[in-house]
Amino acid sequence: MQRVNKLLSLIVLVLMGTELTQVLPANPEESWQVYSSAQDSEGRCVCTVVAPQQTMCSRDARTKQLRQLLEKVQNMTQSIQVLDQRTQRDLQYVVKMEDQLRGLETKFRQVEENHKQNIAKQYKAIKAKMAELRPLIPVLEEYKADARLVQQFKEEVQNLTSSLSLLQQEMGAYDYEDLHSRVISLEERLRACMQKLACGKLTGISDAITIKTSGSRFGSWMTDPLAPEGDTRVWYMDGYHNNRFVREYKSMADFMTSDNFTSHRLPHPWSGTGQVVYNGSIYFNKFQSNMIIKFDFKTSTISKSQRLDNAGYSNTYHYAWGGHSDIDLMVDEGGLWAVYATNQNAGNIVISKLHPLTLHIIQSWTTNHPRRSAGESFMICGTLYVTNGYSGGTKVYYAYHTNSSTYEYIDIVLQNKYSHISMLDYNPRDRALYAWNNGHQVLYNVTLFHVIRSEQL
Q1: Which residues are 378's β-sheet partners?
Q2: d(CA 246, CA 353)
Q3: Distance of alpha carbon 175 from its chain centroid, rounded?
Q4: How far apart are CA 290 and CA 320, in angstroms?
Q5: Which of 25, 177, 223, 285 is the most exposed place for a label (fewest CB within 10 A)?
Q6: Which long-range contacts (CB under 8 A, 24 or more apart) does 248-255 make?
Q7: How confident is residue 162, by pLDDT bands cut at 50, 70 and 90?
Q8: What pLDDT was estimated at residue 322?
């Protein structure tokens, strides 16, 4: 019993990159399949798994319970594989950055020692670069800790498979409920870990990728971030007022190469270009009002409508480009948001988290950024990012973090390929920005900087 308790004390974790090598059963009459534990020629872990053969009596409750635990572990392997790949990639980035920092430190010391012989301009440039890179040092240390955490996951999962094998041999001597609770705890930790991995701080935006050229100068297009697997429909809305028709394309390929679409007629015209499709419904601002409407595409009916109290409308607090863009609805990893302005906040941006079913405000944040000075904005991981304009040279220069109610000024270039952006929204499933740029439908890939803190898992 002491041996079993010791096994149960192990933290159940999942091995990434596992390959199984089958060997003959040690005791064939027991109808169990045994898998060995070793390393392959490339040094990858080969774990031990014990599982009943399919011919095993299905009425054996203990066999069924253990099989369920093994299935849970195998299912979670896919999630941890993603975690490992991303962390290893980030670790390579850390090593590269560390090398650059060391080299820059050396150059900086040389300049300090011989500054009288060096040109003052070069000295100032290197010193400024050092000041810019120095805050990255603690962040790089956190990345290294993340890599160690993932390695810990990989090592501890070997204990899991060994534990299950030994528990199989002592079938009647263990507490199934205790082991099951440990597996559930692991699932929760992994889910929390993957959620943190999905989120991060915006550090870069790719060049514009033109998907299609169609429609007028203003409009919006999007995909549903909560669509089922395989559902790649594209939703298209031309113009910013006096239009009720939404086009549905079966796939991104159809959208790019054909004009085959289904047309949906909304019960009211929309206002602006801040619409969003979320979980099978479209959320839009009713024209000349501060009413938010949720329209279900399956039933072709309004499932909910709600006024956004005190929100300006009809070009009261629009984006810099105008177009009745007073209320901008958007989605990120955390859910549904509304970005607008009120008299009470002196025309500055207000951010509200909305309940997707009731449209009630869950929580609001007031910022110090004038709504009319913003070119466009979008949410990523609970942070609102604002551009400095909509035409010419454009960059993301302001970020408001709802998790800490703080803001900062940043400098991330956004390629304005066609010189007039009238819609810019983030899709958390694609990790991409969808934009309508002067009659062109454009995509931008984003780079997010994330740190997983082990103490929070």
Answers
A1: 385
A2: 25
A3: 38
A4: 19
A5: 177
A6: 248/297, 252/211, 252/223, 255/211, 255/212, 255/221, 255/441
A7: low
A8: 95
Most confident of 79-83, 170-174, 276-280: 276-280
User: What number is the average pLDDT over the span 397-424?
Assistant: 97
Q: Tell me, what's the pLDDT at 42? A: 56
Residue type at position 101 = L
pLDDT in tens, 20-42: 333 333 444 444 444 444 445 55
H or E segment and range at residue 361: strand 361-370
Q: Bridge partners of 236?
A: 221, 247
Q: How far apart are CA 211 and CA 434, in angstroms?
A: 10
Nearest to 12 by CA among 124, 204, 152: 152
Residue that is written with structure tokens 């904005």 in the block: 377
Q: Residue 58: helix, strand or coil by DSSP? A: coil
What single-letter DSSP state applies at residue 228?
P
- How far is residue 80's CA from residue 90's CA, in Å, rounded to a whole number? 15
DSSP strand E in 254-300: where?
262-265, 276-278, 281-285, 291-296
Q: What is the pLDDT of residues 197-226, one digit of tens each?
A: 568 899 999 999 999 999 999 999 999 999
- Whole-number average pLDDT of the chain: 79
Whether 229 and 214 have beta carbons less than 8 Å apart is answered as no
Closest residue by Cα to residue 35 from 17, 10, 18: 18
Residue 130: how many other CB atoms lie within 10 Å? 15
Query: How is the chain split among helix, strand and coil, in percent rounded to 5?
Result: 35, 30, 35
SS3 category, 102: helix
- Burial of 356: CB neighbours in 10 Å, binned 0-12, 13-18, 19+: middle
Give CA 280 to chain center in angstroms: 19
